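User: I'm curious what two different proteins look like when written out as structure tokens. Can you demonstrate?

Assistant: Sure. I'll show them one after the other, since each token string lines up with its own sequence. Here's the first protein:
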Amino acid sequence: MNEELRRVLILGGGLLGTSFALAVHRACPDAVLECIEPNSEHAARLAQLGVSKHIYSRPAEVTATYDLAVLAAPSSVCVAHLDFAARHATFVMDVCSIKQPLCDAAESLHLHKQFVPSHPMAGKAIEGPVGADASLFVDKTWLFLEDWTPPAVIVRLVEAVGAKPFYVADAAAHDAMVACVSHGIHITSLSAMLANDDWRRAKYPGLPDVSGPAFWDITRLASSPAAFWADTLIANADNVVQYLQTLQMYLSRFEQALSLRDKENIVTLLETARLARNEWSDNPHS
């Protein structure tokens, strides 16, 4: 790693925070990493991994200063500790999946030159550091905001852990986009799980035994931690509701076409979806 970021403090020893610590340690073994993690089990796991020089149980214990503080906790926690992080680090970067609350808080604290809103599009349906992986960010998109231009040193760090920087216009655009490709997809996955479980309980107790890869792929996100996702979805509720309304429109079209045995319309819907998926796959950043 370039010498400008020798000391890094990570607030949050969950999946993203611990994975980032592992990734930085692998890419930059001389960097000094310290973490804040109030959960004793998570802290114990961090200690086992051996990548953090010191693990604090709460921010008040921190007296040192850092080149970078990484906020890797639920967005409400990150907002609450933004001022603390800014007092202890030259740069403060968050990795939350929503940006508007963080950017609003940073604006109110006059941190435009210090705060770096970001969002790695990476994760697993696992809570805590048990699933942490130094390769979690490799070849994954790492979002930055054009109106909060990240310092070159931060971009180089993100590239060093294997991620691909990508820029969106602002916090509003970011939150609307992730409502589609992340938050809304999460609800879609959970809804499929709930619908199948209703059928299992009411009609077919053997459904888990006959479920194939498609079922397990689409319902994978149902294993995600509920409390974290409830806070995230509520924080981005307006955008997620708009996505769900669009989703319901297409579900209704399929339902109507099937009810009418309208093969032509069904084929049109299926083919339109196939072509759209191919276009997304061929041109991910178009």
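Here's a second, unrelated protein for contrast:
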Amino acid sequence: MQLKTRPDQMEIKEHGDYGFPVHVSEEAINRFDSNSFLWHWHPEIELTWIMKGQIEYHVNDTCYILTEGDGLFANSNMLHSGYMKDGQDCEYLSITFSPRFIYGYENSSLHTKYVDFITASQDWPSLALSKETGWQQKILSQIQYIYAMSKMPPADYELQVHIALCSIWQHIYSYYSTVPADRLQTSVALERLRDILSYIHGHYNENISLEDISRSVGICKSECCRFFKKHMHMTLFEYVLYYRIQQSLPLLKTGESITRAASISGFANPCYYGKIFRRYMHCPPSQYRKLWLDSTV
């Protein structure tokens, strides 16, 4: 499987509902195509707890290697992706919730003073949570408490989840409210990165060039390459190929021919498509298609 997103990378998924905007789910990185989930964002806040194994987790331009027992806070609207690390699967818990679940009324003191202070700022995209740090361990304990309740919800489940998330938020607010100004990051880079990704995702099946991409964000080709490599830890060309392969997988799952899957996903040559496919998927596209179709019989 793979995440469904809009052209601007916003995830198309319900994270709870209006009455209870919280979603608790157990995930595993090997359930995703190519053992990774693609760059995306959502307005909900996300808390992650690693239950088993390890994962390479990216938020904006920061790369985390999270192992069993670690956690991560990812702020609202932040780009993030995850990858299998050293061929080892990772089982993790994801808790996503709307910021309004914390503050309730729009423009209330809780909203403007304690929630917007963090969610409206792009200076605090994410925070790794370690069991070795006292106040972070308290957050991890609350995450585990929510997980335990989700398995066998008590009569007041929603209320207890709300109390636990408010406790977590209080710890996060207390930390960020004391961060020195010289540790703040710029939001310009995030907007530029989003613009580059949006252009690639909107034109991946065309014959796009470095000049096309750099022109779309108003910078020179060399700066575009340098910027992308710095923030994404791969070259623009590598990312375009990787994304094209990801977009071809649903076509193969429906039994589409190799030639057509290659063409639709932006490869002019099916032989080159097969070469790149093997690089990322570790098998030929024909084998991937057969294995998938056989598994659905």
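A detail about the second structure: Residues 157-176 form the longest helix (20 residues).
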